[in-house]
Amino acid sequence: SVMEYAVPVWQAIPAFLSDLLESVQKRALRIIFTGAETYSEALQLAGITSLAERRHDLCIKYMNKMRQKGHPLNHLLPKQIENSCNYNLRQDKNEHYKFKNSTFCKTKRTDSFFTFKYFKP
Question: What is the pTM of this model?
Answer without folding.
Answer: 0.67
